[in-house]
Amino acid sequence: MAKKAAPKKKVPSKKLTRDEKYQLYEGSVQNPQADLDFINKEYKKLYGKKPLVLREDFCGTGAMACAWVAQSKEHFAKGIDLDMEPISYGVENHLFKLPENDQKRMEYILGNVMDNYNFKTDVVVAFNFSYYLFKKRNDLVKYFSQVRKHLKKDGAFFIDLFGGNETRQPLEESVKHKNHTYFWDCNSYNPLTAEVQYYIHFKKGETKYEKVFSYDWRMWDAQELRDVLADAGFSETIIYWEGVDKDGSGNGVFTRCTKPVENCDSWVTYICALP
Ligand SMILES: C[S@@+](CC[C@H](N)C(=O)[O-])C[C@H]1O[C@@H](n2cnc3c(N)ncnc32)[C@H](O)[C@@H]1O
Questions:
Q1: Residue 76: pLDDT over 60
Q2: 16 contacts 210 by C-beta, under 8 angstroms
Q3: How far apart are CA 120 and CA 75, in angstroms?
Q4: Is the confidence at residue 63, as pLDDT, over 80?
């Protein structure tokens, strides 16, 4: 009789703790100060004053909203997210690190960005492409309309967007940081629907943590977004483009753009919409 094979020992797959997961994420993809500087500068150009009240949609850990209230005692922020996990990390690691008086001016809302709220703000942001989760044009029109309803008269809605040929094909990019490597993995792209499946992986030491974040999105084109914003009732949209260094790489300086731009392999930019 054949000997029964010994059952294989299950090797538990290593998992990042909540704190490791968000520390790695924030250390790889976020720069709240650069976003704040950009918004402050552009809002001032539009209305000749400082924006004081921010709503951060899809806020995750709310890093940006917490940085917002730290600007002065006149600054207030609300961060909206459906998921308690990033919010709990943000409360412990961003909110509680602020002086007590600043903490009072920031509120996390465990809620849906599509819902009605009883407050209006100077600025609404939806960053890190979170609204790409709306795959149907009608849903995006509804979301943008909700944002417009919640903006003050002198308000501004900022979104970021990304594109280029390299972003619409299976491709894994990696960026080495001091203590970890970040992977941005386009796993699939459907040219008929513009649907993409992106993953974020991390490597720490010898261990690669796969699919720590997963994004089932639709890629939205810049002009399409401006059309959808107009359909949602925004009166004007401004698009920005990043300047380049001598070596041709992005220099982090975004300016208003009205001329045709270079068709880069990969780009990130902002749109600002006015109510
Ligand atoms: C890509 S993360 C963005 C986090 C953060 N804004 C950033 O810049 O890194 C997307 C976040 O959107 C949240 N989310 C998804 N659908 C939402 C909805 N309808 N309303 C509120 N939050 C939502 C998720 O829970 C997740 O934390």
A1: yes
A2: no
A3: 14
A4: yes
Q: What is the pLDDT of residues 197-239, one digit of tens each?
A: 999 999 999 999 999 999 999 999 999 999 999 999 999 999 9
d(CA 97, CA 90): 10
Domains detected in the chain: 18-162+228-274 (3.40.50.150), 166-215 (2.20.25)
Alpha carbon of 36 to ligand 1 centroid (Å): 18
| Ligand 1 atom, smallest distance to 113 CA | 20
**Which residue type occupies 114?**
M
The predicted model gives 51-62 an average pLDDT of: 98
CA of 26 to the centre of ligand 1 (A): 14
**Would the pTM of this model clear 0.70, i.e. be above it?**
yes
Question: What is the torsional sign of CA 239, 243, 249, 252?
Answer: negative
End-to-end Cα, the chain, rounded Å: 79
Are the C-beta atoms of residues 56 and 78 closer than 8 Å to each other? yes
Q: Is the pLDDT of residue 174 over 90?
A: yes
| Pair 57, 125: CB distance under 8 Å | yes
C-alpha of residue 275 to centroid of ligand 1, in Å? 23
Spatial distance between the Cα atoms of 51 and 35, rounded to a whole number of angstroms: 13
Kindly state if the Cβ of 43 falls inside 6 Å of ligand 1.
Answer: no
- Residues shown for the chain: 275
